[in-house]
Amino acid sequence: MQDNITKIFKAIADPKRREIFHALIIASSALSITQICGQFSISRQGVTKHIKTLEEAGLVTISSQGRERFCMADAQPLKQVSEWMKFYEKFWDGALDNLGAYLDES
Amino acid sequence: MQDNITKIFKAIADPKRREIFHALIIASSALSITQICGQFSISRQGVTKHIKTLEEAGLVTISSQGRERFCMADAQPLKQVSEWMKFYEKFWDGALDNLGAYLDES
DNA sequence: AAATTAAGCAACCAAAAAGTTGCGTAATAG
DNA sequence: CTATTACGCAACTTTTTGGTTGCTTAATTT
Questions:
Q1: What is the pLDDT of residues B5-36, one digit of tens each?
Q2: Which one of the record's GO molecular function terms can you name (chains A, B) (predicted)?
Q3: How far is the alpha carbon of B45 from chain A, nearest alpha carbon, in Å?
């Protein structure tokens, strides 16, 4: 499909997916699909699709128990985003000065 | 359209746009649309559209000079991404321990 | 055993996104 | 003045995305 970091970026680019991810992060336990549905105004299948996207990005892990599928957020992949951004931080504010710093270190 | 941070996320979610942004960041001067085109295998209009998306996210600023439009990257909006991520950093590695830290500070 | 519940799958739909081509126009070069 | 260049605009195509509904299956309840 697309490379890993693109999957992560795309996953968090959607506001509803960010909401779902957030809900899972702050949940005290893993949540089933139905439990997640309860918090949002979209259909179960809609939620399922978002969860799948998040899962493929590694931002959600799922463990099946009986007929239920419990979802847990995993923030780890966001490290990759952080890594990606590290390069560009040099260019925040007073781009020219920091560009100098960048050139120095290379 | 959509809120500001979503625009930023969406802008950088596309790999070609990340490439263009990168090319602009490391360029020693502002680049015209045509100059940017030279580095990528899509049509000029394709580039123009990507530039527009980046511009709307605040990641590119444009100054017109005669018939040319010179583009410059601005990394500043990425700060917002960094801000957004700050919350989730607590949950990297050993989620449980860090969750404790999060609960303490709230 | 029958009814209910949790969820997957597939098909479908509408809107957005990524990209193209064609044409017009204003600035610059010859 | 003419030719060329840099670009915007508009229309159009294809893919992707966000979302839906209907149906099925497998676990649970009652």
A1: 999 999 999 999 999 999 999 999 999 999 99
A2: DNA-binding transcription factor activity
A3: 23
